[in-house]
Amino acid sequence: MKIRYDDNAAVVIDQEGNPKGTRIFGAIARELRQLNFTKIVSLAPEVL
After folding, report:
1. How does residue 20 score in pLDDT terms, banded at 50, 70 and 90?
2. N or C end of the chain, less CB within 10 A?
3. CA-wise closest residue to 35 among 10, 17, 22
4. pTM, 2 dp
5. Burial class of residue 40, CB neighbours in 10 A (0-12, 13-18, 19+)
6. C-alpha pair distances (Å), 33 with each of 9, 27, 47
7. Of 45, 47, 34, 40, nearest to 12 (Cα)?
8. Across residues 17-45, what is the average pLDDT?
């Protein structure tokens, strides 16, 4: 199975892995949770 998105998007992070912004508008991949990007996962409205 492949997950595809309709648009290209990015989350800018600092050297410690923390997001520079405070909002994420789209869904993110489940693998980010496995890679311990918990702050990004908590900001996202949906995890696929």
Report:
1. very high
2. N
3. 17
4. 0.75
5. buried
6. 18, 13, 9
7. 40
8. 91
